[in-house]
Amino acid sequence: MKKLLPLLLIINPVMADDSKSEFYEPSELNTYQGKLFYDASKEDYPTDRMIKLCKDYTGLDTAQIKCKEQDQTSLVICEYKCSLHWLTKKKDKIK
User: Fold this and answer.
1) CB-neighbour burial class of residue 41 (10 A; exposed 0-12, middle 13-18, buried 19+)
2) Where in the chain are the domains?
3) What is the reported pTM?
């Protein structure tokens, strides 16, 4: 039970808002955007993870990274975009 309580405390704030509980990797279907989380007390800022996930999509657009700390936890949720998202916007304007 002692091990389960910290896990529930970590999961509960994230699950409180459904939009925050959806984590995904970039793809063509989601216009090369991703969302991930990390524990700031245990991990460094996840730039390397984002770069790796965006490798196939012309790299990470560092200006498009937005991270938000969760209330009263060390969890941080980051939304990011791969550089290829700019081509998607241009394609939408042409149509």
Assistant:
1) exposed
2) 4-94
3) 0.68
